[in-house]
């Protein structure tokens, strides 16, 4: 019996990209994905390097779609928001 592996859905968030397709296009075209802006943390905060890749729009979530109350959505950790979105997109991509 062979142990076959099937990847049937994929999604993700990458620096300066909304999805894997935008990320791939930027990689292929040599677009710089690191920046030195203070969008998320001040430059040099806790010894962070001056240049880093930052994910776009971490503060947004479609609370109604995910059946979250407004207050719950406002206080949900951005990583959990991204997890909800990426898991849904992966399942959608898998068909």
From TrEMBL:
- Domain of life the protein comes from: Eukaryota
Q: Which Pfam families match?
A: ketoacyl-synt
- Record bears the keyword Transport: no
Which UniProt keywords are present, listed alphabetically?
Fatty acid biosynthesis, Fatty acid metabolism, Lipid biosynthesis, Lipid metabolism, Multifunctional enzyme, NADP, Oxidoreductase, Phosphopantetheine
GO terms under biological process? fatty acid biosynthetic process
The segment(s) forming the Beta-ketoacyl synthase-like N-terminal domain are 3-95
Q: What is this protein called?
A: Beta-ketoacyl synthase-like N-terminal domain-containing protein
Q: Which species is listed as the source?
A: Dinothrombium tinctorium
